[in-house]
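Escalated from tier 1: flavin mononucleotide holo job.
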Amino acid sequence: MDLSTRFAGILLENPVMPASGPLVGDDEKILYIARLGVGAVVTKTISTKAAQVPRPCIGATQSYVMNAELWSELPPERWIKEILPRLKRELKIPLIVSVGYTKEDMEELIPELDEFADAFEVSTHYVGKDLSKIGEIVAAIRKHTEKPIFMKMSPHIPDPVGFAKVAKENGANGVVAINSLGPTLKIDPNKRIVVFGGKDSFVWTSGPAIKPLALAMVYMLSREVPDMEIIGVGGIKSADDVVEFLLAGAKAVQLLSAALIHGKDIYKRIVESLPRVLEKYGFSSVEEVVNTKLEFEVSCSPNHPRVDLSKCTFCKTCEWVCPYWAIFVHPDRREVVVDEEKCFGCGLCQTRCPVNAISGVMPVEGRWL
Ligand SMILES: Cc1cc2nc3c(=O)[nH]c(=O)nc-3n(C[C@H](O)[C@H](O)[C@H](O)COP(=O)(O)O)c2cc1C
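Tier 2 regenerated the structure:
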């Protein structure tokens, strides 16, 4: 199975990369992640000053990660003199150097970092929402490098398409979408405290909970700004998720939170399971997925649920969750009644049925996992 993908002239053996964060915080960590079989690596964001990171700074549930990390806690000199030269000698896959933040930071950093980077990824997380500033940052980088430039978009940017267009006009090759979501907050009612955060007490949220938002951003950008290359990131935890991002318009993907929730070898597991998952969906290469156009049809006429009584356990989940009071479960009579006058054809029952006994409302089979 051919897993290779190409963006901005860079060839990757497979489309999976670590996202910028603690797992790519120095040369040891980057080489460890590279050995797990990823197609390329990205560094922790390097800026002109070492970050003063509050502690604690990372917490997680099964569905999301919260963090108060900023950028690299190491000074840029350490990256330039030690870490990047070693990676240049030892790393066998493309290296994307993540940098931040201002135009002035770029003037200082890019000339020093250029020889080590196969491409630059530019965090815009702390530069505000003014698109003219984004344009100036890209232009400042382009003055000092011919390497591909990927602008990383944070979800608090109000105009994602405008962001991508300004980036392109000023010389960027693509967008990495998305950074973590926020500001967000963690409270402990017992101690009456905000549990952790930066100076402002807020944290940033990532992981599976943000996947639908990340997918939408990738889809929107790939349709509205088709000549920009998109790298998708946000909530990926499986090879199935990778396929979704590629179908939405990404050429490659990154992930971090799933590795913080489930362990670092998730990179290996995803890369190794990708051929089987592509085959399951009837694809013969990553390129074929990337070139597939998604279809979508809007309809306002309802389809009502069909209940397979041989699967139904009469658990009543559908009855309890139905927002239109239209489905009734009679365990004693082993019967499920759908009141088609009341049923709005919304689809919720099908997506929540724990045993896949409901079909016919959504245009796909089964529940949502
Ligand atoms: C602990 C932590 C540290 C992060 N540090 C950075 C960073 O230095 N630079 C950056 O661009 N994004 C950083 N991110 C954002 C991730 O690269 C990624 O965009 C986001 O977490 C969404 O992907 P995920 O859901 O797979 O984690 C960080 C995220 C986490 C959880």
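The radius of gyration is 23 Å.
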